[in-house]
Design brief:
Elements lengths: L10 E8 L2 E8 L7 E12 L15 E8 L5 E6 L2 E6 L4 E4 L2 E4 L7 E8 L2 E6 L4 E6 L9 E6 L3 E11 L5
Antiparallel strand pairs: 1-2, 3-13, 4-9, 4-13, 5-6, 5-12, 6-7, 7-8, 9-10, 10-11
Protein name: GH32 C-terminal domain-containing protein
Organism: Niabella ginsengisoli
InterPro entries: ConA-like_dom_sf, Glyco_hydro_32_C
Length: about 170
Amino acid sequence: MTFNQSMSLPIEHKLVKTAEGIRLTRMPVKEVETLRGKSYKLGNKTIKENGANPLKDINIELAEISMDIIPGKAKEVILNVRGVDVKYDVTNQLLIVDGVKAPAPLQKGKLSLLLFADRTGLEIFANNGLMFMPININIEGSNRTLSLSAKGGTAKVSNLQVYELKSIWH
């Protein structure tokens, strides 16, 4: 690589009013969308324990993944990105990735999730930027799989979209 360490996506900070008071949000700048290549618009899916993986046909390295998770009866919803589990613990309303935990409370019964996968980690935004979770982890280059599953019950996802991203180095 032509760099040392890792850097975050360019992020826009905003102050927003919430029921808990004014909060700081962080979301990627709109210009990041210019990196989008092929898109997979999968819409609404029901995720069952040991059920079909709606992302099984996607083979991808650099990715942007977005969805709204409606946990239903599920205890966990797991998005596996190239071998890295992004778990949503419904009972405790926590996102858990590589041993790192971050509070991500449901809003109106759902969790809005936006995730970017790079070669050196994941950047996760929940609830329109109220939670930002950067995870520095070297992702196995040969693993280009995605999966979505639930444990302990059935969950639903809506607005499921995946974009293949172009490298900024080319």
